[in-house]
Amino acid sequence: MIQLFNDILTFLDTGGHILLVVLFSSLIFWTLIIEKFLYYKFIFKPKSKKLKLFWKQREDGDLWESMQLKQAQISELIIDLNMNIFTIKVIIALFPLIGLLGTVTGMISVFDSMSSFGTNAKAMAGGISMATIPTMAGMLLAVLGIFAFSRIDFIIKTKTRRLKDKLLKDSDA
Q1: Does the pLDDT of residue 171 top 60, yes or no?
Q2: How far apart are CA 42 and CA 78, in angstroms?
């Protein structure tokens, strides 16, 4: 366990300070993704079932006022389900940019070592690895983020469409 921790610290040190920013942003991103899955499973599903049952038992469901109330309740559920979606999209877009920032800072380190030590390969290698590791991490997180977001987006759109279809039936929503 200690060896794993040391390997992670070595990796973070090799990638430079920008890799810490990548790590921090990925923690925020995955926390938001997990929150969306948990919200859907433990809050949205029970609330939507309760709402369906409520409107199934009411007899005045076809009146204009009832339809407006139904739409308001559906909209409230959908707004809650879509909370932080924009933040997730922004973080996905930032992953490659943060990686690119790591490339720039790593290349600055390479040029700095070249100006100080000449063409010392060992000094240049540290800067090149500092340039490539955050870029690789940013690209990897962007790809994984797009996959996770597409799954979340599919669930949200499918479930909200089903909820609207079930509650609003043939009415103009």
Answers
A1: no
A2: 15
Rounded CA-CA distance 124/134 in Å is: 16
**pLDDT, mean over the chain:** 87
In-domain check, residue 139: yes
Find the helix or strand (DSSP H, E) in which 173 lies: none
132, pLDDT greater than 70: yes
Q: Mind giving me the DSSP string for 66-79?
A: HHHHHHHHHHHHHH
Please say whether the beta carbons of 167 and 62 come within 8 A. no
* 74 lies in some domain: yes
Residue 42 has pLDDT above 50, yes or no: yes
Give the residue from 15, 22, 27, 32 showing the smallest Cα distance to 89.
32
Summarised one tens digit per residue, pLDDT across range 45-102 is 999 999 988 888 887 767 888 888 889 999 999 999 999 999 999 999 999 999 999 8
Inside any domain, residue 138: yes
Q: Are 85 and 110 in contact (CB under 8 A)?
A: no
Q: Residue 172's pLDDT band (boundaries 50, 70, 90)?
A: very low
128: in domain: no
Q: Report yes or no: 22 and 141 within 8 Å, Cβ to Cβ.
A: yes
Total number of domains in the chain: 1
Q: Residue holding tokens 């290349």?
A: 107
